[in-house]
Amino acid sequence: MKWSQIPLGVLQTNCYIIENTDQSCLIFDPGSEGKKLINWLTKRSLKPDAIFLTHAHFDHIGAVDEVRDKYKIPVYIHEEEETWLVDPKLNGSKFFTMQNLIQARPADFILKKEEAIKLGDFEFFVYETPGHSPGSVSYYFEKEGFVVSGDALFKSSIGRTDLPGGNQSQLLKSIHEKLLFLPEETEVLSGHGPITTIGEEMDSNPFLNGF
C-alpha cells in the first residue's frame, strides 16, 4: 500500500491517494481541479472506493461531487461539519473573492466518533482533531506508518484558527493529545506543504514548544 500527494487549486491543497496493490484506492480531500485528478487516476488505472474529508473548508471539497459522480463512490465527513458542504458561508468560499462559491451535495456517511474503519483491504483509525475547524479529523494508518492530518499539523507550523469555528487552544490540545502520541517515525501528510514526521515536529515545531 502506498500514498501519493497531488496539490490542487489556487491554494495548492494536498489531495492524497492511498492505493492498494489491487489498484483500489481511497481519496482524501479532493479540493479542486476534478478533471486533473480524474485524469491522474485514469492514467494509473486506479479504482477509487471512497472519498474521506479531513474537514469541509472550500479548498478541500471543491472537486467532491465531480469525483463522486465519476466513480459512484461515497463521501465521509465528521458530523460537526455535516452541513458545511452545501453552505458557502460555512465552508468559507463566500468570503474569498478569488474563489467561486463552492457547494457539494451532503456526504453519504457521517463520522460521529473516533473509530477504526475497515473498507476492503484498507484499515485505519479516525481521530477527532478539532481546532482548525470544529469537525477536523485525522486518519491514521498504523501499519503503513502515516497520518493524513488535514490542516491540523504542518511542517514547522499548525493550522490557522482565525476562521469561523477555529480555536487555537483546542487545536494545540488535539495535536498534543492525539497526534504527538503517535510513533515519532509516523509520516504526517498535511493539507498544505511538504510531508513531515511526528518526531520532527516534536523537536522543532515552534508552535508546539512550551505548550
UniProtKB/TrEMBL annotation:
InterPro entries: MBL_Glyoxalase_II, Metallo-B-lactamas, RibonucZ/Hydroxyglut_hydro. Keywords: Hydrolase, Metal-binding, Zinc. PANTHER family: HYDROXYACYLGLUTATHIONE HYDROLASE GLOC (PTHR46233:SF3). SMART domains: Lactamase_B. This is Glyoxylase-like metal-dependent hydrolase (Beta-lactamase superfamily II). Its cofactor is Zn(2+). SUPFAM superfamilies: Metallo-hydrolase/oxidoreductase. It comes from Neobacillus ginsengisoli.
